[in-house]
Write a structure and sequence with these properties.
The chain is an alpha/beta fold. It has 4 domains: 159 residues, Molybdenum Cofactor Biosythetic Enzyme, Chain A (3-Layer(aba) Sandwich); 57 residues, Molybdopterin biosynthesis moea protein, domain 2 (Alpha-Beta Complex); 84 residues, Molybdopterin biosynthesis moeA protein, domain 3; 86 residues, MoeA, C-terminal, domain IV (Beta-clip), CATH 2.40.340.10. The protein is built from 7 helices and 28 strands. Strand 20 and strand 21 form a beta hairpin. The chain binds adenosine monophosphate and magnesium ion (MG). The site of adenosine monophosphate has 19 residues, from helix 3.
Length: 415
Amino acid sequence: MLAVDEALSIVLQNAQPLETEEINFHACVGRLLREDVVADIEMPPFPRSAVDGFAVRAVDLAHVPARFKVVGEIPAGTFPDFRVGRGEAAQIMTGAPVPDGADAVQMVEQSRLDGDHVELFEAVQSGQNVAPRGSEVARGDIVLRSGTRLDPPAVAVSATVGKTRLVVGKRPSASVIATGDELVHPSKLPGPGQIRNSNGFSLAAQCTQAGSSTHYLGVAKDTESSLEELIRQGLGDDLLLLSGGVSMGRFDLVEKVLEKLGVRLLFEAVALKPGKPLVFGLSNDGTLVFGLPGNPVSTMVTFELFVRAAIARLEGASHPVRPLLKAALGAKLANRGSRRAFLPGWVRSDENGALLAYPIATRGSGDIVAFSKANALLIVPEDRDAIPTGDDVRFYPLDSFLHKEDQWQAGNHKS
Ligand code: AMP
Ligand code: MG
């Protein structure tokens, strides 16, 4: 069976970055930058004071306290047209240009004004509290690199270098189809043998969060004609995601219908738990097609590991795969079988900031409620049956790693 890493590299090889578009820099958060952004000016553009205080020659302040003649005032937004000479000081505000002649600024807290003189109580080093012109960025420096996911600091950088329009990857479009005769809408009470459709909606939510525009096409019945009708609609998008219908059952018809519609299947199983029956293929028009296993936890995990990376690569990400982190196991983690396991876990930091990981009790890949409490996927390599308490475990941080409240785990996991 195909290893997880091989499957991922097949997906990424077949996901070519889409076209680009130009957008306003203040609307760029979450988008993928597709050009290098270059500084049009030096930063800072003038020697900038880091504090409110007095600009002086540091040599004049070698012996303290020292008395200076105040020769001018420099509010932010003005440019001094005078020099600071020997025994002179200029009153200066944070962010304002340090006048010629001065090479340091002493903080206002270390001063006492006395008419047109000021007394300074502490010495300064040459250069203290002054950011020299061009010391942060030279003109022409690359300040944002193509392939970067844009975030609020990137907004600030774009603003700073006057780059008000940014070339970004187009958002990939994704169609979502749930499959299964047993599915009813969440607003209905399930009848005998029925269950509520959660994957259709959770997949659409994952797509949106991962940065694609999403078309939810509804539920296909477990018949070739019903599947065919919806799959045809979905093949117009950059990605088509189906849930269910990819196992070995008599009514698992997804692969058959995909092939009938010209989708070339590149793999049909991965050595992954949960998520073994993951199907991936390419349509004639280049749509990336994922047949995700129907168990709600499997659907979410395979999306995380494969579809998220595909979306990022379509946008043009240079690093489409999330980094795996490491924590010490707070309780034993077991995994029967030879597939790499990604098990729901809770990772928290102890008093010293060290990370501790706890497996979450789960009934398996149907147990979406247990999964919803996780903020990480704890990884058991294919050649291990268990990882003992105290050993390091690698984990995949879910989005909720940064913000999931400790509602369920509080009290459970004392260290
Ligand atoms: P399947 O691969 O189609 O046999 O589905 C595997 C399991 O996932 C079955 O228990 C299905 O009832 C369940 N399942 C499939 N699709 C969904 C869905 N959209 N929402 C919730 N559960 C689903
Ligand atoms: Mg099914």
